[in-house]
Amino acid sequence: MINLDNLKILLSTPKDIVITSHRNPDGDAVGSSLALYHFLKTRNHSITVAFPSEFPPIFEWMKDSDLILIHDIHTEEVNAKIDQADLVFALDYNSLDRIDRMGDYIAKAEKPIAMIDHHLYPDDFADFVFSDTTASSTCEMIYDFIQMMDSDKDLNIDIAEYIYTGILTDTGSFKYATSPKLFRIVSALMEKGIDNDKLQGAIFNSLKIKNLKLLGHCLNNRMEFLPEFKTGLITLTKKDYENFDIQRGDTEGIVNYLLMVSDIHLAAFITEQPTIVKISLRSKGDIAVNEICSKYFKGGGHKNASGGAYYGSLSNTVRKFKEILPSVSKLQTA
């Protein structure tokens, strides 16, 4: 943390604060934002949470999620909140281009920015930086931040549930980026009284029938294996998005099914979006997919769970992905 003492001083009196997170918010983005929102509310700050785009409906059970403003929808209101803000928090992203037009507005507003994030290679845009690439999630870092602020007493059950949600989703139910420290934090959250069964059900057992049909389509019609590289691949076209009415969050977790095959060590989920092709990678063992995403797909993330994008056709993206497989030496020995 850079300038923690100065940040403490800034937060020692009530301020107007805007909490932001990245486009297409996931459980870590929503969880960390609402956890910080409720923590700062205990200190009498005036808080606005704003995302560039909408978050998946599976997180609507979270208390006060209905207060989150969406810049794509509430553009003028969000911009006005930024104008009057004394501080902007940047959660779960490390570059202003991850929040699209909202990032451009924040840059022009020249407000103090506090970044809390766990991704590699942060841009130099924040005045206060808490960056930990060993952390499982930004939610884990929010827990640490509350401890750093000497405010464990303010960590109530609502905040504990939000933090647990981000940890649970970003680790793939404790399959990625775990550590002894993480499980100590989870233990502390459990002691606050969170209901693991309830949260697991709310997050993972709230699918619609169309989600199961989509999963069946992916596994039966869109799955390909490259055994010589111990790699599995699933693709979705724009037509698939239309046919299955795919919305935010509907494809979450599909890529993980590929890694259930014993001899598959690298999994790719490549989807054709309106103006871009997105790629999501997962891996087993020592295969660093964050390096693949950073080098070839303008992305990043965890060692075993990362994502990126490619400006081109779906077929060209798949071709590019297959072309780089021989250079991933770990696949030869996995």
Explain this structure to me?
- The mean pLDDT is 93.
- The protein has 13 helices and 12 strands.
- The relative contact order is 0.10.
- It starts with a helix and ends with a helix.
- Helix 2 links the parallel strand 1 (16-21) and strand 2 (46-51).
- The protein folds into 2 domains: 4-204, Alpha-Beta Complex (inorganic pyrophosphatase (n-terminal core)); 209-333, Roll (Diaminopimelate Epimerase, Chain A, domain 1), CATH 3.10.310.30.
- The strands form 2 sheets. A 6-stranded parallel sheet has the order 3-2-1-4-5-6, with helices on both faces.
- It is an alpha/beta fold.
- The longest helix has 15 residues, at 27-41.
- It is globular.
Which key terms come to mind for this protein?
Diaminopimelate Epimerase, Chain A, domain 1; 2 domains; 13 helices; inorganic pyrophosphatase (n-terminal core)
CATH topology of the largest domain: inorganic pyrophosphatase (n-terminal core)
Q: Tell me what the CATH architecture of the largest domain is.
A: Alpha-Beta Complex
Number of helices: 13
| CATH level 1 class label of the largest domain | Alpha Beta
| Count of extended strands | 12
Q: Structurally, how many domains make up the residues?
A: 2
Strand content: 15-25%
Output the structural class.
Answer: alpha/beta
Shape type: globular
Taking the sheet with the most strands, its summary is:
6 strands, parallel
Distance between the termini: 37 Å
Helix amount: 25-40%
Order of helices and strands: HEHEEHEHEEHHHHHEEHEEHEEHH
